[in-house]
């Protein structure tokens, strides 16, 4: 029943989102008119070649309206973004619930595990649809936006993706992509699932072995300080795998949808680093300097 | 016998091809460079120029003199160096306006102060005709002047400027423009491109059935026409992708092309030549790869604008045609470029009316009695033959469609309409909206993404290898180095030197996977044709491109490559990490090839497992998972349909929980309602006596074979006649094969027999355009045999 109600809720939200998008367009056409007015006034002032008090007042009025229009449009857009976030979180809730219940939502006969290629596609898709953080003027990006780490007392929620340091069968330590199952406040330990279902392993790990992944992309155009900079040491998900490895930032992204280009530490190359490979913002986290080096 | 009629019928076809081609080249301009005019094959610019010329030539003489004066040296005295009269009162409106008052002959020149009359004195006794010729050059000079200014490419600009000066000089001296210098004069190479391409059609396709041969001929015409109007890439663009020596040769050709072919298209003062008639193989070599890509791209982009009959021609045959042509252009010793090329077989040597005639002759011959010796063109003959048929069994058409469905259903098969309907729903474009990734369900086939990427040109597959006898081209060598890198990175336990030795060994080949021009994976193999197997030597995909289905798609391509080359076994020594991969690709540890065949041939690796894969030449491997997915979808839809018709839910069976191991199928509640029939009952309906069935089928087959429209289906299609036939048609069948099958008592049920008959028809419709002669035959033959089947009681009436 819970699933059904989530469905109707999502349908409602989608309708609202649709409305909001239409409103945006209305708002936009309205401000268009005013912007045109401003432009015309400027032109007229230029031809008359003087700034009379009349124009000054007129322009001030026009600009005030334009600013209000822009703010109204902006607030609708933010509202729409909130709706999208809400839909995504409902979907996520549903996914977790289904996972808990051991139900496959897919109508096709269940496979024991997802094909790895499909898993990779899903991971890429989740990186692509990670929301971009859009702050109000003067607002600085919050923790878990881009390179900004979570606060020290932050506890990752159930279903959140994290980089988790686990002991592999051969005793080597490895950073893997995992999903949080629970957190115990009494022991300060996380329970996480390996994202790769083939692993089917559940790990219990202390806080320091967990690095939450960013929840927003940082916009390189407005918040470049929230990105890792060139030559910084990071942990990055090696393309087409579910493991994080140490890497140096080769080039940070230039546009919001761009990936980092990183050089993985790789002894099989003469200079000790792989050729530049692309990794999405979602899968690049700070590397806690480890002792051996 | 029907010469004129046949010729008449060919005419529109050719025109069609031409208009198709012209339309193609017209729109090409966009794809060339964004600059002013150039490849605009004329029309607009050419028309504009000729309009302007007509306008100028209609001027009164005084006005003409003024116009020519501008380009005429002052003859007042020897000292005056003025080379053109300049109007002292520059007119406000454009000079072209005829109403504008012509300047007076006494008007002084702005630069030398001598009168206009002194500039044009040499024109006094010149005929009107000559004046007009000179005026034409004036218009062309003005146009060239604009072109020089607008052109951004320096090489092109230089040539324009040269031509500009040349024409100016000609006006001054009242001469004829002749391009001088080291360019030589056309034709620049023999045989020319046109001859080469026509030779190619003869060389490769003269053995084809007339219909296909005609198709190829049309394609060649279209290709030549496109080429004549194609805008070549500039030498600087060429230099970026080619080697130095080639680039300087290309620059010469490019300049020739501008002077003799391209510019004269809109500038008729210069003598004009067709690209395909004055250039030969060397130019084609330089431009073919790029032009081919642009051509195909353009057709792909504009496929919706093409008329439907052209679309099939272009989209299905053109790429293949170009690939075959490519082999001849770059091939070492292709005969088509020999000056004295002649086709050994004279039959069909003359492409043209003869080829159109022959299908008539063939289709006519079975009808012989009616038509022998009568002069009937193919058009009229067509109607005659269909009339004969409908006359025989008038009620057939409407009766058939209804009966069709019923009959086949009885046989347990699904009516074609239903299948088509289902096909429509599963390929419904509305159902395919949304982001691509969401289409990939957890059950998407492993190679689905790779297949899509290949279709979109993101990845490419090439079989390459080193050669000691001929110089490999640079790109191939770069790719081989790339492969060696990928293999040595991904197979760290193999010594690098060993990998290098095998990848560069001329006996080994590698199927390379290319993305963004770089090698990201490959399978190195060695074919042993005498031993009937191929050894898989290395197989790898670079680590950051793994898990995308590339490995599977690579292996499927390799399988198809081997089917094409007639080798049906793969053998490989797989290490412990590779066994899983090879299993997924259909390899097994069960070796069927006798040891004697591979021992001593295949490289033996210690600690590795020998695995084998047997290929089935009837499986289209790269499409297999897609086909199966389709089939599943169809069946799912059919089940849904059936369910919605029956609408009854029975409680599940409980007997198995109670320990029952097996129950008769018919005792499952509701199963009969779905239309299921116990097999024994169905068998009862079949003919019990095998000999009776055999005789009936034999009789029937004999009747079908003598049907006038059965001629295309008498024997297996020859690969030499339709090179791509067996790539498109996976389950070929023909009346001769059916006769053999009948003799071998293969048709134990009528169902098998009818299925084969139906396949003849569906194959024909798949391979040929619907309005082709062949499909018409298929249509009539299909009606005929269903009629006969019904008549003989093999299917319900």
From TrEMBL, chain A:
GO cellular component, one term: SAGA complex
Transmembrane segments annotated in the record for this chain: none
The entry's keywords: Coiled coil, Nucleus, Transcription, Transcription regulation
Coiled coil: 3-41
Annotated SGF29 C-terminal domain residues: 152-293
InterPro entries for the chain: SGF29, SGF29_tudor-like_dom, Tudor_SGF29_rpt1, Tudor_SGF29_rpt2
UniProt keyword annotation of Transcription present: yes
Gene3D superfamilies according to UniProt: 2.30.30.140
Compartments reported by the entry: Nucleus
GO annotation (BP), single: regulation of cell division
Protein name: SAGA-associated factor 29
Protein species of origin: Chanos chanos
Lineage: Eukaryota, Metazoa, Chordata, Craniata, Vertebrata
From TrEMBL, chain B:
Enzyme nomenclature, EC number: 2.3.1.48
Keyword Nucleus: yes
Domain named N-acetyltransferase: residues: 463-616
Domain of life: Eukaryota
GO molecular-function terms, A-Z: histone H3K9 acetyltransferase activity
A GO biological process held by the record: positive regulation of transcription by RNA polymerase II
Entry annotated with the keyword Cytoplasm: yes
CDD domains, alphabetized: Bromo_gcn5_like, NAT_SF
Keywords associated with the record: Acyltransferase, Bromodomain, Cytoplasm, Cytoskeleton, Nucleus, Transcription, Transcription regulation, Transferase
Family to which this protein belongs: Belongs to the acetyltransferase family. GCN5 subfamily.
UniProt name for this protein: Histone acetyltransferase
Compartment(s): Cytoplasm, Cytoskeleton, Microtubule organizing center, Centrosome; Nucleus
Active site: 535 (proton donor/acceptor)
List of residues binding acetyl-CoA: 539-541, 546-552, 577-580
InterPro entries hit by this protein: Acyl_CoA_acyltransferase, Bromodomain, Bromodomain-like_sf, Bromodomain_CS, GCN5, GCN5/PCAF, GNAT_dom, PCAF_N
GO CC entries: ATAC complex; centrosome; nucleus
Domain Bromo: 705-775
């Amino acid at each position: 029943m819970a699933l059904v109600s989530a469905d109707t809720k999502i349908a409602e939200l989608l309708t609202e989102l649709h409305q909001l998008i239409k409103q945006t367009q209305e708002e936009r056409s309205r401000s268009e008119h005013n912007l045109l007015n401003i432009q015309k006034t400027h032109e007229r002032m230029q031809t008359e070649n003087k700034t009379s008090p009349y124009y000054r007042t007129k322009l001030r009025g026009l600009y005030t309206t334009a600013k209000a229009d822009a703010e109204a449009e902006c607030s609708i857009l933010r509202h729409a973004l909130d709706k999208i976030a809400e839909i995504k979180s409902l979907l996520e809730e549903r996914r977790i619930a289904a996972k808990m219940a051991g139900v496959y939502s897919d109508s096709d006969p269940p496979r024991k595990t997802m094909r790895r290629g499909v898993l990779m596609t899903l991971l890429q898709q989740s990186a692509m649809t990670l929301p971009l953080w859009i702050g109000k003027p003067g607002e600085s990006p919050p923790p878990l936006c881009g390179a900004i780490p979570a606060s020290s007392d932050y506890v990752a929620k159930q279903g959140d993706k994290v980089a988790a340091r686990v002991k592999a069968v051969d005793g080597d330590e490895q950073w893997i992509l995992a999903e949080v199952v629970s957190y115990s406040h009494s022991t300060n330990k996380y329970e996480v699932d390996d994202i790769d279902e083939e692993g089917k392993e559940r790990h219990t790990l202390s806080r320091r072995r967990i690095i939450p992944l960013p929840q927003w992309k940082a916009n390189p155009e407005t918040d470049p300080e929230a990105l890792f900079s060139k030559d910084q040491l990071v942990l990055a998900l090696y393309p087409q795998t579910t493991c994080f490895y140490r890497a140096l930032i080769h080039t940070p992204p230039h546009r919001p949808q761009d990936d980092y280009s990183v050089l993985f530490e790789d002894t099989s190359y003469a200079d000790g680093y792989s050729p530049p490979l692309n990794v999405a913002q979602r899968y690049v986290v700070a590397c806690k300097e480890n002792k051996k080096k | 016998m029907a010469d004129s009629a046949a010729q008449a019928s060919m005419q529109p076809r050719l025109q069609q091809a031409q208009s198709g081609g012209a339309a193609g080249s017209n729109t090409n301009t966009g794809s060339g460079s964004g600059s002013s005019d150039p490849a605009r094959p004329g029309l607009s610019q050419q028309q504009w120029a000729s309009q302007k010329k007509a306008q100028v030539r209609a001027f009164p003489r005084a006005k003409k003199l003024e116009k020519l004066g501008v380009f005429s040296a002052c003859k007042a005295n020897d000292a005056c160096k003025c080379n053109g009269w300049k109007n002292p009162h520059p007119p406000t409106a454009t000079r072209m306006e005829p109403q504008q008052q012509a300047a007076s002959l006494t008007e002084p020149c702005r630069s030398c102060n001598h009168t206009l009359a002194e500039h044009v004195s040499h024109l006094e006794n010149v005929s009107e005709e000559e004046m007009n010729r000179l005026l034409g050059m004036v218009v062309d000079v003005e146009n060239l002047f604009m072109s020089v200014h607008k052109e951004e490419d320096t090489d092109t600009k230089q040539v324009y400027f040269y031509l500009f000066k040349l024409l100016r000089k000609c006006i001054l001296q009242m001469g004829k423009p002749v391009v001088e210098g080291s360019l030589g004069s056309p034709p620049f190479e023999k045989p020319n491109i046109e001859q080469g391409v026509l030779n190619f059609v003869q060389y490769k396709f003269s053995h084809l059935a007339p219909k296909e041969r005609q198709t190829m001929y049309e394609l060649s015409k279209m290709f030549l026409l496109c080429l004549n109007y194609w805008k070549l890439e500039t030498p600087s663009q060429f230099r970026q992708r080619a080697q130095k020596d080639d680039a300087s040769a290309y620059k010469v050709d490019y300049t020739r092309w501008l002077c003799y072919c391209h510019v004269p298209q809109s500038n008729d003062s210069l003598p004009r030549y067709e690209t395909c008639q004055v250039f030969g193989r060397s130019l084609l070599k330089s431009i073919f790869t790029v032009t081919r890509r642009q051509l195909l791209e353009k057709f792909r982009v504009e496929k919706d604008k093409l008329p439907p009959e052209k679309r099939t021609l272009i989209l299905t045959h053109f790429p293949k045609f170009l690939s075959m042509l490519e082999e001849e252009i770059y091939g070492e010793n292709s005969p088509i470029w020999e000056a004295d090329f002649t086709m050994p077989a004279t039959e069909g040597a003359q492409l043209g009316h003869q080829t159109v005639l022959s299908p008539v002759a063939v289709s006519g011959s079975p009808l012989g009695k009616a038509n022998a010796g009568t002069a009937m063109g193919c058009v009229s003959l067509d109607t005659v033959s269909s009339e004969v048929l409908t006359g025989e069994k008038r009620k057939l058409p409407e009766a058939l469609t209804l009966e069709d469905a019923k009959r086949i259903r009885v046989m347990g098969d699904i009516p074609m309409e239903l299948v088509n309907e289902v096909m429509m729903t599963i390929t419904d474009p509305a159902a395919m909206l949304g982001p691509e990734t969401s289409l990939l369900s957890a059950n998407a086939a492993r190679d689905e993404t790779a297949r899509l990427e290949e279709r979109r040109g993101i990845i490419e597959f090439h079989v390459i290898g080193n050669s000691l006898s001929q110089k490999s081209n640079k790109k191939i060598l770069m790719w081989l180095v790339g492969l060696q890198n990928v293999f040595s990175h991904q197979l760290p336990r193999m010594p690098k030197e060993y990998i290098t030795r095998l990848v560069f060994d001329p006996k080994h080949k590698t199927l390379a996977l290319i993305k963004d021009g770089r090698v990201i994976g490959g399978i190195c193999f060695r074919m042993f044709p005498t031993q009937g197997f191929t050894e898989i030597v290395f197989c790898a995909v670079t680590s950051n491109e793994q898990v995308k289905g590339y490995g599977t798609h690579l292996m499927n391509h390799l399988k198809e490559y081997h089917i094409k080359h007639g080798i049906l076994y793969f053998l490989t020594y797989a290490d412990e990490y590779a066994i899983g991969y090879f299993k997924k690709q259909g390899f097994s540890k069960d070796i069927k090839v006798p040891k004697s065949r591979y021992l001593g041939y295949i490289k033996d690796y210690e600690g590795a497992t020998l695995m084998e894969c047997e290929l089935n030449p009837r499986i289209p491997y790269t499409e297999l998972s897609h086909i199966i997915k389709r089939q599943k979808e169809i069946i799912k839809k059919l089940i849904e349909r059936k369910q919605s018709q029956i609408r009854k839910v029975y409680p599940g069976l409980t007997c198995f929980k109670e320990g029952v191991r097996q129950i008769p199928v018919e005792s499952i509640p509701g199963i009969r309602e779905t239309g299921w029939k116990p097999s024994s009952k169905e068998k009862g309906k079949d003919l019990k006596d095998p000999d009776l069935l055999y005789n009936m089928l034999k009789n029937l087959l004999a009747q079908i074979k003598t049907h006038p429209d059965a001629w295309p289906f008498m024997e297996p299609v020859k690969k030499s006649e339709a090179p791509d036939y067996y790539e498109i048609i996976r389950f070929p069948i023909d009346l001769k094969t059916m006769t053999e099958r009948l003799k071998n008592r293969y048709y134990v049920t009528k169902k098998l027999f009818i299925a084969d008959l139906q396949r003849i028809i569906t194959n024909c419709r798949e391979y040929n355009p619907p309005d082709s002669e062949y499909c018409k035959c298929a249509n009539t033959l299909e009606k005929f045999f269903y009629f006969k089947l019904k008549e003989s009681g093999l299917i319900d009436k």
